[in-house]
Design goal:
α1 crosses α3. The protein is globular. It is built from 3 helices and no strands. The chain has one domain: IscX-like (Arc Repressor Mutant, subunit A, Orthogonal Bundle), CATH 1.10.10.600. It starts with 5 loop residues before the first helix and ends with a helix. The chain is mainly alpha-helical.
Length: 68
């Protein structure tokens, strides 16, 4: 996975942190969690606010579906 794989990362974050509300997570914490995901292989310095926001929204959509 790379920073542009928002949906895949969102699913992986949901699996790793199923009880966490994605909208309550700071970008700095989420970035660290992403870097720790199995299968994530992009350069840490390639992240930016836009990419993290897209990932957070993809994670939120997955989380919302799982908790409805």
């Amino acid at each position: 996975m790379t920073w542009t794989d928002a949906e895949d990362i969102g699913i992986a974050l949901l699996e790793a942190h199923p009880s966490v509300d994605p909208l309550a997570v700071r970008f700095t914490q989420m970035r660290e969690w992403i870097l720790q995901l199995p299968g994530f292989g992009d350069a840490p310095e390639s992240s930016n606010e836009g990419r993290l926001e897209a990932i957070q929204m993809a994670w939120y959509e997955e989380w919302k579906d799982a908790h409805s």
